[in-house]
Design brief:
The chain is α/β, with parallel strands linked by helices. It is 33% helix and 10% strand. The chain has helices spanning 34-38, 40-54, 71-76, 113-120, 143-158, 179-184, 209-218, 258-274, 292-313, 320-323, and strands at 10-17, 59-62, 125-128, 166-167, 189-190, 239-240, 245-246, 278-283, 316-317. The termini are close together.
Length: 329
């Protein structure tokens, strides 16, 4: 990555802040996983504290609904043109949105403005995860409804004095046809997928067991390689700050493999630092909503390794937006 600041590897962290809006169609507010969602109230301050301790920057890609303080504000933010998914089970407007409470106090699964405020009061970037957790590869949606959703996210963020410049596709459904739409609506960067076929963007129904198994194995074994990237800037599109690794949460049945998983990430980080590559780590705050101490211990180990790489190779932490400055433009 050659630029006026010299050659260096880049360490980017992005977090998909979505609460129940990200998984409402695969679980419910009464399911056991709701405890993970409720746990985000402890995860956000813990993350902000550890990022400050290690001087690490992050991008919090936030669902636009979470910018709303209450139900009235959320409903007022909805776009006129909404997606008409062929699978009606994906339609948040006809399903989940009808069951929300009034505000964060009585519905912490759907509202989280106090969490967003904590990020706003920090030095981290706030990006967008679309307004409604919009699925960009599912049948029935189109460019018109996607742009309407993006504009709704931009508007509610602007009302809170936030300019959205980084974008994360929900469920990593990167739709290349929508990149120019992002660009013309002020988006400077997006999180693309790793290059391995394992991580190819797919319809949700195409995420079959074999694909999920390969991704699980890749967390421990180098199936997909080292996942360090060169940042490439294409005219008329946002800069691709491609993902390298999903930070899987601690899971008791596989806890005996944790040293191997953390070693895999550290090895990838080292490769990126030595070879002036981008390394992009991401996860959802609700992944840490249970077993917070164990998950934070793993993250602490990785950030200690980042500090070592920073001292030895000038491995540099930056937000997604800042990483665009190191593209090949």
């Amino acid at each position: 990555m050659k630029n006026e600041r010299g050659n260096k590897g880049l360490f980017v962290i992005s977090l998909d802040l979505e609460l129940l809006w990200g998984i409402w169609d695969v679980t419910s507010k009464d399911a056991p996983y709701s405890e993970n969602i409720k746990g985000v109230k402890d995860v956000i301050p813990a993350l902000l504290k550890i990022f400050e301790a290690y001087q690490v920057k992050a991008t919090f890609a936030t669902v636009g609904f979470l910018f709303a303080k209450n139900k009235e504000e959320l409903l007022a933010s909805l776009p006129v043109h909404k997606p008409t998914y062929s699978n009606t089970g994906y339609n948040v407007y006809e399903n989940e949105i009808k069951s929300i409470g009034n505000d964060e106090q009585d519905d912490p699964l759907h509202f989280g403005y106090s969490l967003l405020q904590q990020v706003m009061n920090s030095s981290h970037e706030i990006g967008t995860h679309t307004h409604s957790h919009y699925y960009c590869l599912e049948d029935g949606q189109d460019a018109k409804s996607f742009e309407a959703d993006l504009q709704a996210a931009n508007k509610i963020a602007k009302d809170k004095n936030i300019q959205l410049q980084s974008f994360v596709f929900p469920r990593n459904q990167v739709n290349n046809e929508y990149l120019p739409i992002l660009f013309t609506n002020g988006i400077k960067t997006y999180r693309g997928n790793p290059t391995s076929w394992i991580y190819k963007p797919r319809h949700f129904a195409a995420e079959v067991f074999f694909i999920r198994l390969c991704r699980l194995l890749d967390a421990y074994l180098p199936l997909s390689g080292m996942n360090g990237h060169t940042i490439i800037d294409e005219p008329g599109k946002p800069v691709n700050i491609a993902a390298s690794r999903f930070m899987k949460p601690w899971f008791k049945p596989l806890s005996w493999l944790e040293p191997l998983r953390i070693y895999r990430i550290k090895k990838e980080m080292t490769y990126a630092a030595k070879n002036n590559k981008l390394y992009h780590l991401w996860w959802h705050p609700h992944n840490f909503g249970k077993n917070l101490e164990k998950n934070m211990s793993n993250l602490n180990s990785l950030l200690m390794h980042f500090q070592y790489l920073n001292r030895k190779y000038n491995f540099t932490s930056c937000s997604m937006n800042e990483a665009a400055n190191y593209s090949n433009r």
